[in-house]
Known about the structure:
The two termini are 15 Å apart. The protein is elongated. Helix 3 runs antiparallel to helix 7 and helix 4 packs antiparallel against helix 6. It is built from 7 helices and 2 strands. The mean pLDDT is 93. It has one domain. By secondary structure, it is mainly alpha-helical. It has helices spanning 2-15, 23-38, 55-72, 76-94, 143-146, 149-169, 178-202; strands at 42-50, 107-115.
Amino acid sequence: MEKLVDAVRVLSVELGPRGSASEAERRAAEYAAERLRRAGFEVKIEPFRGLATFSLPYGLIYSGFALAAPLYLLSPIASFALALLSLAAFLTEIHALPTISRILPKRRSQNVVGMRRPKGEVKRRVVISAHLDSSKAALLWHPKMVAGFRRSFLTMVGAMLAIALLGLAGLFLPLGRAWWAQLACSLYLGASVILLVHRELFMEHTPGA
Length: 209
């Protein structure tokens, strides 16, 4: 237990906040690799390039939905195209298929992989994974909001689909009062953008371990 407490102290106090693809994250990777080696694991460090924050790609995607309803007043075709592209980007990103994130600036990061070879017959493989970085604090992670995270996420996805479907309907007939429903959905996504902007501008990385 003392060794576990030592690891928590090093990560959360000595190394402290560790943003994604940051120098502090790199030091955490070196620390994790050394501990694994001392524990008898074969260790390799896999470099890659990654985003410093998820706020940028998802902020751009949510902005597309937020602008779709106002854009309908100028061009229904452009509004639907923007909603459709935003929906496609969202679905691919959440399934780990980079679209928006592919073209965004990236920084050097790394994975630490430790493997211990079995002494006898392999009956089962165990994989344990963990984050080396620590997240930024955010209003999104407030206990009252986290309790309803599933509900708010499904509401957001429903709003995205509604924006796209109403945009499609708007290509063939005037939306009339239905446009206000589309606008309400766009405002919901706009609120998500504001939360992400607030996170990036005003919140700090946590010293998590």
